[in-house]
Amino acid sequence: MPSIKPESKISTELRMAPEHLRNELPGYLRELQTNLKAVPGQLRQVPGHLRETPRHLRDVPAFARNLTRDQRHSAAVISGAAAAAVALTLVPTTSSADENRVVADGPANSAVLSEGLHGQLGDVQEQQEQAAERAADAKQAAEAKAEREREARAADRSKREAAPQQAPEQAPKAAEAPQQYPNNLDGWIREAMAIMDEHDIPGTYDRIKWNIMRESSGDPNAINDWDVNARNGVPSIGLLQVIKPTFDAYHVEGTEKSQWDPVANIVAACNYAADRYGSIDNVWSAY
Question: Is the pTM of this model over 0.90?
Answer without folding.
Answer: no
